[in-house]
Amino acid sequence: MDDKKLIFSGIQPTGTFTLGNYIGAVRNWGPLQDEYNCIYSVVNMHAITVRQDPAALRKNTLDSYALLMACGIDINKSILFIQSHVKTHAELNWILGCCTQFGELSRMTQFKEKSQRHPDDINAGLFTYPVLMAADILAYNADLVPVGIDQKQHLELARNIAQRFNQRYGDFFTLPEPYIAEVGAKVMSLQDPTKKMSKSDENPNAVISILDDKDTIIRKFKRAVTDSEAEVAYREGKDGINNLMTIYSSVTGKDFAAIESEFAGKGYGDFKLAVGEAVADHLEPVRTEFARLSGDKAYLKECYTAGAEKALRYSQRIVLKAYHKVGFVDLK
Ligand code: TYM
User: Fold this and answer.
1) What is the CATH topology of the domain spanning 204-290?
2) At the topology level of CATH, where does 6-184+296-326 sit?
3) Category of 184 on φ-ψ map: left (φ > 0), alpha (ψ -120 to 50) or beta
4) Does the N-terminal or the C-terminal CB of the chain have fewer CB atoms within 10 Å?
5) pLDDT reading at 1 higher than 60
6) Which residues carry out catalysis?
């Protein structure tokens, strides 16, 4: 390969992507393809750390693959694959697990949150989830990992794991850097703007799905929680408005000063409607392209088969070297 830096990122197929997934991560992946070598994955092995209906998981995985393409991932520029098709992730996971401390995993805030949400299924996979995430990244020796803020802690752990491996066995893994957008790295719930917008929210009005139709999107924005000041301005304490301004800025490219003057003297009703319309219009081509792609199962299969082959070829070289480094006998 050339000397471009390598990007890796993944998304779980646990339902249609939210506007948070889109603004915080996925929409940035397409534009990176020209400057970097990019590898993106639908991480279905991560998804089963929470109970999934098998038929729904299968469908969601294929839909997520099509959705990533609809969001601008070009399979002629990037490697796009389904995680369970590439065995090196599970293989490296084992080695990295032996370089990870129980205490480190216990401190992961996402583990704590998910354990609270699913107290009847605090399984070992949920606990070791960040090790598999480290394997995803290190199996390609990725330089940069574009994610939202909520994944930063996992990424720091991946760096620590890589560092520990390198100390034990000699310099080998690249230490991956987070690549976090300046605006939109944490999109908040429309109903409780102190909380992250999340697929698992029970209140459907809190979350925009990127396949919601225009009316639904506008209705949800109209109901968004704001404050009682009636002033569109970005400042501390105005969580709801700050969130709407962030979203509006991300889909229109306007900065906060421009948004403040656009809505000076206008009420929140006008602002919310404008945000809803801008988001719906921005997502319209994604919806159209998704409808086209998801109907073409044969083409999708061709794409994910080729993606898996490329990802395996790339990662196998690295994982076999790691096998050798730890002292496993070569099979050659
Ligand atoms: P996941 O599937 O929860 O989310 C996918 C991406 O969306 C970002 N994101 C958000 N960004 C801004 N605002 C929000 N409200 C919001 N919600 C989600 C996430 O930060 C993420 O970038 N563990 C990962 C998947 C993963 C991965 C990897 C990522 C597995 N292996 C290797 C990078 C590299 C996860 O659960 O993301």
Assistant:
1) Tyrosyl-Transfer RNA Synthetase (1.10.240)
2) Rossmann fold (3.40.50)
3) left
4) C
5) no
6) 114, 196, 199
